[in-house]
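Work Package 4 report. The design task specified in the project plan requires that, given a folded chain encoded as structure tokens, an amino acid be chosen for each position. We show below one input record used in the internal validation round.
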């Protein structure tokens, strides 16, 4: 699984903020994060250029041949809340999004492709340039997160009052 993480200080600020919320608001935050992750997984499609032939020219966007990589991302969305029944001790909401496919990493970061014994007619191994699809999506999610959290808390406080 390709994993990306939030820098330590942002993670600490987020955990501190979440730990100060009432259990009912934590449930609402969890729902909002789940929706945001599904939206992000759906939006990853814009980093795929469409269909193309095997061995065709390499572009800055991924070429969609079988749809397996995109489907693996769409199916990977997982969110969790710990403990499952929120109470005053609820301190953790987790999210996961990515791909378990063996070629997901080389598509995101680029690199020398194929087995060591495989070479092109010129004697070189094929090189795939990086074509990021997860990092830009995570950047978008990270930019949207503060507004989503603010809206959820504002709505929950309004419902209480």
């Amino acid at each position: 699984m390709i994993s990306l993480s939030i820098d330590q200080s942002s993670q600490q600020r987020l955990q501190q903020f979440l730990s100060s919320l009432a259990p009912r608001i934590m449930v609402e935050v969890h729902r909002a994060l789940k929706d945001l992750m599904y939206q992000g997984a759906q939006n990853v499609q814009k980093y795929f250029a469409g269909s193309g032939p095997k061995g065709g020219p390499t572009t800055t966007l991924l070429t969609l041949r079988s749809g397996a990589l995109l489907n693996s991302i769409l199916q990977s969305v997982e969110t969790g809340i710990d403990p499952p029944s929120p109470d005053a001790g609820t301190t953790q909401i987790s999210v996961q999004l990515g791909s378990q496919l063996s070629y997901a990493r080389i598509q995101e970061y680029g690199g020398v492709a194929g087995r060591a014994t495989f070479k092109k007619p010129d004697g070189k191994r094929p090189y795939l340039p990086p074509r990021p699809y997860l990092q830009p999506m995570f950047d978008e999610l990270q930019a949207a997160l503060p507004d989503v959290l603010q809206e959820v808390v504002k709505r929950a406080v309004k419902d209480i009052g």
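The helical segments are 8-19, 23-43, 68-75, 104-109, 134-160. Validation will be extended to a larger panel in the next phase.
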